[in-house]
Amino acid sequence: MPNAQLTIDPTFTIGAADRRLFGSFVEHMGRCVYGGIYEPGHPDADPRGFRRDVLELTRELGVSVVRYPGGNFVSGYRWEDGVGPVGDRPRRLDLAWKTVETNAFGLDEFMTWAVEAGVEPMMAVNLGTRGVQEACDLLEYANHPGGTQLSDLRRKHGAEDPYGVRLWCLGNELDGPWQVGHKTADEYGRLAAETARAMKMIDPSISLVACGSSNRRMPTFAAWEATVLEHTYEHVDYISAHTYYDPSDGDRASILASAVDMDNFIREVVATADHVAAKQRQKRKLKISFDEWNVWYESRLQADLDRRGWVEAPALIEDDFTAVDAVVVGDLLITLLRHADRVGVACQAQLANVIAPIRTRTGGPAWRQSIFHPFALTARHARGTVLRTEPVGPTYETKRYGEVPVLDTVAVHDEETGELAVFAVNRGPNELPVDLDLRGLPGLRAVEHVTLAAGADPAATNTEAEPTRVTPRQLTTPTPDGGRCSVALPACSWNLLRFAPQS
Ligand code: AHR
Asked: What is its EC number (predicted)?
């Protein structure tokens, strides 16, 4: 079989690799907050109860934006329950996850944690059981400098300066019948438009995200986006997209091709948004906020929920990710980068314990799951301008997505330093030789080839006992000769190839 071919040219630009593509998500769900980022009494907790080990891993992960507080949770949440003296905060039933919410952690704690973690907060307002007024109240509390009841309440609670939250989600997954306060597209579209208009009266500098579909398989997908955008286009900056890929059926060939589905999903949401823009003669192009994405063994969720009554912070969907799952996550990041012109925000769901790159034991250590590694390396090295690559190579057949390419790639070029990062996934079960043509970027030398290969032990996971079983390793990289070189991508692997100008 001939080698796969990959040509990289700095003139084939897509857009800037926005830092906001490396977002994450903290929901009041399972042990993401309680026992995850926040655990007073833990030996490594700071005086505010923030786990230092998790803070450190969050920084190492390179997370830029963190969406909060949900997720399904937000659709029944009263934000004011989570501010003020902790002893006065009410215990409530959280209907989304059949959990008792203590409200020990709330808005002010999250904002303090976000500063400590070095991340930008992205807030969601409740448009399930609540409406325009409560969203405005929350925004006034968070962003208004002072001199009003709610902004002064924030100051009384210790935050003299406004939080200046720039990104706001108008509800969560309201197309889903599981959502508390589920709505039709018209009901939601009207409410989102009115909420957006009012919120921008309070703070015109904010950016707003309207809810798109919960996933591409929803029967209302695309019609939902079209109707919602008919109502909201002129008032919002993003339409959301969510997707999770479930490897539970063991169909490895298909799960490795999940990025093909994400790619089509993005194209379809863009087409729908552009259709509405054309109808309404809107000049401004809307972007996607891909604010929930990941691999998720979702079929196990119901069993988790059925197994218990109303309890505090139960272990929920604490999936152990395999080496194959890490390759899939790396490929989903490649896809998000490839659409950097139209995807402006992306949040991997979630940050700690709940389908997360960071796992903890309550009272015990924290460790990196397999999926931590491609995220951290991509966030660190995807700097500059995303370049379009059109790899030519073999294909294979999948049950879920038909015939798909074995090789998936994207490149990011940093014009300031001259560095080039090539991200490549070999979805196939055999090593894949690739001929690289870098003649458009003369004078590059190889820096490193990092690989996370799942071929030898696809089901390997990182656990408390063996936290480094799935870890990237270094391969030797050839320096291009006359702008050309060949690399071998290990079987079923995610790869980062770095090049820099010859000194
Ligand atoms: O991330 C877990 C859940 O998945 C979120 O709460 C919800 O928005 C989505 O369905």
From this structure: 3.2.1.55
Give 19-61 pLDDT, tens digit per residue: 999 999 999 999 999 999 999 999 999 999 999 999 999 999 9
71 CA distance to ligand 1 middle (Å): 5
Does the active-site annotation cover 173?
yes
DSSP string, 161-174: S-----EEEE-S-T
Is the pLDDT at 304 greater than 80? The verdict is no
**At 488, is the secondary structure helix, strand, or coil?**
strand
- The pairing of strands 407-413 and 420-426 is antiparallel
Which residues contact residue 100 at a Cβ distance below 8 angstroms, ignoring those fewer than 6 apart?
A: 91, 92, 93, 94, 310, 311, 312
Residue 447's pLDDT is what? 96
Count other C-beta atoms under 10 Å from residue 466's C-beta: 11
Catalytic residue among 173, 225, 318, 419: 173
92-106 tens-digit pLDDT: 999 999 999 999 999
Please state, in angstroms and rounded to a whole number, the distance separating the CA atoms of residues 72 and 126: 10
Indicate the top mutation candidate among 75, 127, 172 to test ligand 1's pocket, ranked by most ligand atoms within 8 A of CB: 172
Beta bridge partners of 436: 6, 485
Is residue 419 within 8 Å of 445, Cβ to Cβ? no
Angle between helices 323-338 and 258-279 in degrees, nearest 10 = 30
Distance between CA atoms of residues 125 and 168, nearest Å: 7
**CATH numbers and ranges of domains, the chain:** 4-10+386-501 (2.60.40.1180), 18-324+337-365 (3.20.20.80)
Query: 79: which 2 tokens?
Result: 């934000």
pLDDT digits (tens, 9 = 90+) for 335-390: 999 999 999 999 999 999 999 999 999 999 999 999 999 999 999 999 999 999 98
pLDDT tens column, 198-223: 999 999 999 999 999 999 999 999 99
CA distance 420 to 412: 6
Tokens 């969560």 sit on residue: 172
Q: Which residues contact 219 (CB under 8 A, 6 or more apart)?
A: none
Is the C-beta atom of 76 inside 6 A of ligand 1?
no
Token pair 């907060």 in the structure block, residue? 121
